[in-house]
Design a protein that fits this description.
Layout lengths: L1 H12 L2 E9 L5 E5 L2 E6 L2 E6 L6 E5 L4 E9 L1 H22 L2 E8 L6 E4 L5 E5 L8 E4 L5 E4 L6 E6 L2 H14 L13 E8 L5
C-alpha cells in the first residue's frame, strides 16, 4: 500500500509538457479574447469573464471559429483547469444564444408559502414560511429576472444569460427557506428547483 501511495504521489507531481483542448465557436456568436479575458457576444447580449487566475493560454484560431486552450508544464490538477475553462466558455456561448431558465416550486404541508415579486422582477419576498412573520427578501444577481409561472400554481421562473448568476440566484432563494432547529426529514417545506432548461427551444 505504501509503495502504491508513493507511486501515486510521484504521478501527481509529474508535469505534462503540453496539454490543450479546442472548442468550436457557435454560429451567430462573436468571441474576443484579450489577456485571458473572454468576451462573448450573441443575439441575447454580451457576457464577459476573466480567467486570469488560471495559468494557461487562450487563443482564437481558424479566423475566430475555434478557441484553443493550452497549458505548458502543468501538474495533473492544474491540467484539469483546461476542461473547466472550455466548459465555462461553452456555457457563455449557450447563454448569449439560448439563455438559461430555472423553474422553482413551492413545497408546504400546512402553512401556504406566499411569494411576491417586485415590479422590476429583481427581488423576491417570501412570507408565511412555516407560519413565521419574518419576511425573507432575496435580491436577484446581475442579469437575472424572476417571474411567476402563468401555467403552474406555486411556481416561479428565473431567466438570464449567465448560468452562474441564474443558478446562484436560485440557490439563494432555496437557502432563504432552509428549515432551522427541526427534523428536515419531516419538515420538507421550502422552495426548490424543479426544472432546468434553455429559454430558446430548438
Amino acid at each position: 500500500w505504501c509503495a502504491w501511495k508513493q507511486r501515486a504521489g510521484r504521478r501527481d507531481k509529474m508535469k505534462q509538457i503540453q496539454s490543450s483542448q479546442t472548442i468550436d465557436v457557435f454560429d451567430n456568436v462573436t468571441v474576443n479574447i484579450k489577456g485571458r479575458e473572454v468576451r462573448v457576444k450573441g443575439p441575447r447580449g454580451v457576457l464577459k469573464r476573466s480567467f486570469k487566475h488560471a495559468n494557461l493560454d487562450i487563443a482564437l484560431e481558424a479566423g475566430g471559429k475555434k478557441i484553443h486552450v493550452e497549458m505548458w508544464f502543468g501538474k495533473r490538477k492544474e491540467i484539469a483547469c483546461i476542461r473547466t475553462v472550455c466548459s465555462e466558455i461553452r456555457n457563455m456561448m449557450t447563454g448569449v444564444t439560448k439563455g438559461y431558465q430555472y423553474k422553482m416550486r413551492f413545497v408546504y404541508a400546512h402553512f401556504p408559502v406566499n411569494v411576491s415579486i417586485t415590479p422590476d422582477k429583481k427581488h423576491v419576498e417570501v412570507r408565511n414560511f412555516l407560519g413565521e412573520k419574518l419576511i425573507r427578501r432575496v435580491d436577484m444577481l446581475e442579469g437575472v429576472e424572476v417571474v411567476r409561472s402563468e401555467k403552474v400554481k406555486d411556481e416561479i421562473v428565473l431567466e438570464g444569460n449567465d448560468i452562474c448568476n441564474v443558478s446562484l440566484s436560485a440557490a439563494l432563494i432555496q437557502q432563504s427557506t432552509a428549515v432551522k432547529d427541526k427534523d428536515i426529514r419531516k419538515f420538507l417545506d421550502g422552495i426548490y428547483v424543479s426544472e432546468k432548461d434553455n429559454i430558446v427551444q430548438e
